[in-house]
Amino acid sequence: MRSSFFLIAISCLALSFFSPANDAAMNDGGEGPEPIGWRSGEESIIQMKAEHLDIRFGTEMTKVKARFTFMSHKANGPARQKLGFPDAARSDLDGDVVGPIENLITRVNGEVVESELVSGYYQEIVKPDGSVFYEKRSDPEDTGGAGWVRRHAWHVIEVEFPVGEEVVVEREYDCPPGIDTTMNAFFIYETRTGGAWKDEIEKLTAEVTFADDVDTEFVTLHPREGWHWSEDRSLATLTWENFEPRVEEDRTYFEITTLNIAKIREVSKEYPDFPPLEEWIANWRQMSEDR
Fold first, then answer.
1. pTM over the 0.90 mark
2. CA-to-CA distance for 185 and 180, rounded, in angstroms?
3. What angle do CA 63, 37, 241 make, to 5 degrees?
4. Alpha-carbon gap, residue 142 to 163, rounded angstroms
5. Could you tell me the end-to-end alpha-carbon distance of the chain, in angstroms, rounded to an integer?
6. Residue of 14, 11, 26 whose CA lies nearest to 180
């Protein structure tokens, strides 16, 4: 899929090279866990207190170690909740996603647990307060159409949350980055799914390091504000505190993007008419100034 996408990129080059708008195939593995099995559309009784993301970003592969700290607000006994990690490559978006997720490991309080792949057709329903829930539906092709119904997939685990105790869920995986026709590689992480858990997320920390195939001179981060670079530019850190992604539009995702220097060199050797690296860099600098 990835090699064919770059052939399409070459054919579309005249339209996209000097334009900030571009077609993109999104990265998989860019969403946190959702509470699965509830149907009221209201927040779960479980709070995601914190999430810590250790991301090693590369133009060929991104490695993610995510740690989520949960706390139950049920006072009269332990709570059980299914956690579903979205799998975009197995959803109806699979044609627009670079994937799949690889080397998936899930741990609960340090112990490795097996997850179940659950997929089917669901209608995504957004309530007036911004909460999102899913109602299972029949395959729209079998029923002649059923409104906004799509195939969704999750890697699901069931977790018990004792009263007054924090529970730590870790998820480790590899995934190819997203790609676009302006020869960028990128990784987008959505915090939007965290809005289904109770109350605010007290703290999110994203620590981004870079693989050897990334030149940090050509890295851009979104949002622009809030990131802190180490002195040698080997680490970029983002911290958000006490936020509710259901209602705070500037806290629904963050993005890491780089000009894919290695891919430009590779394609330039194979296709003599492909613009040289110097032109891509000049175009990248101009677009960065315009933003």
1. no
2. 7
3. 50
4. 44
5. 30
6. 26
pLDDT at 41 over 60: no
Rounded Cα–Cα distance for residues 97 and 230 (Å): 31
What lies within 8 Å, CB to CB, of 252 at 6+ separation is: 190, 191, 192, 245
What distance in Å separates the CA atoms of residue 256 and residue 29, rounded to the nearest whole number?
14
Q: Is the pLDDT of residue 147 over 60?
A: no
The length of the chain in residues reads 291
Query: 274 and 10 in contact (C-beta within 8 Å)?
Result: yes
Give the domains, in start order, of the chain with CATH numbers.
2-290 (2.60.40.3680)
Helices and strands, counts by H and E, the chain: 5, 19
**How big is the CA angle at 196 (ends 203 and 48), to the nearest 5 degrees?**
30
Chain centroid, CA 269 distance in Å: 32
CA 246 to CA 239: how far, in whole Å? 18
pLDDT digit string, tens, across residues 95-125: 688 878 999 999 999 999 999 999 888 887 7
Give the tokens for residue 39. 């149907």
- Tokens at 34, concatenated: 């959702």
Would you call the peptide bond into 223 cis, given omega within 30 degrees of 0 as the criterion? yes
CA distances from 142 to 58, 93, 123, 146, 149 (A): 41, 19, 15, 9, 12
